[in-house]
Design goal:
The chain is built from 5 helices and 4 strands, in the order ββαβαβααα. The longest helix has 21 residues, at 89-109. It has one domain (2-157). It has helices at 31-36, 54-63, 89-109, 114-128, 137-157, and strands spanning 2-8, 15-22, 44-46, 68-70. The strands form 2 sheets. The protein has a two-stranded antiparallel ribbon. The protein has 166 residues and is α+β, with helices and mostly antiparallel strands.
């Protein structure tokens, strides 16, 4: 069983990087390899709680020192030992979440923008299907990369214009 991980530009809907892994690989371990595929600096990393942890924030900072990581801290998250003197981004998220609650934190950091990445994943799955046809992992990686390329071409051709109906 394999899983595909995508790095998406939420504003453009384009796939910036992808990694196909077996289910034994943890989500957080893929942040560095995904970021390595992106040549330009990034401003924000939006991810779900599976990516919570200092190693992810370190990988983001190594790629783009000024990037902001927006990852919800786990309910059991505790601040680091340096939180009093030099709080990390994660420490600030833990503190804000404790002060404002989960929804208050989400509003403050605009966590809702992550849904744009989820929409891109949905479009990707609609394009290539929920499972890959190739049988070997190397062939599946090629199939997934082709799917990403095709999706980016379709995205550049134009996205549908939507508007809210009152």
């Amino acid at each position: 069983m394999v899983r595909d991980h995508l790095a998406v530009d939420p504003d453009a809907g384009a796939i910036l990087a992808s990694a196909l892994t077996t289910t034994q690989d943890g989500d957080a371990s893929l942040v560095g390899p995904l970021l390595d595929q992106i040549a330009r600096p990034i401003g924000t990393v939006l991810a779900d709680g599976a990516y919570d942890g200092e190693p992810v924030y370190r990988a983001v900072a190594a790629h783009s020192p000024d990037a902001q990581g927006i990852i919800p801290p786990r309910s059991t998250a505790v601040p680091s030992a340096t939180t009093e003197n030099a709080p990390s981004q994660r420490d600030r998220h833990i503190q804000m979440s404790a002060e404002r609650g989960r929804l208050g934190w989400q509003r403050a950091v605009q966590y809702g923008r992550r849904s744009l990445g989820e929409v891109a994943m949905m479009r990707y799955k609609q394009l290539i299907g929920r499972s890959l046809r190739a049988r070997s992992l190397p062939a599946q990686k090629v199939e997934a990369a082709v799917g990403c390329k095709v999706m980016n071409i379709r995205t550049r051709l134009g996205m549908p214009a939507t508007s809210k109906v009152a």
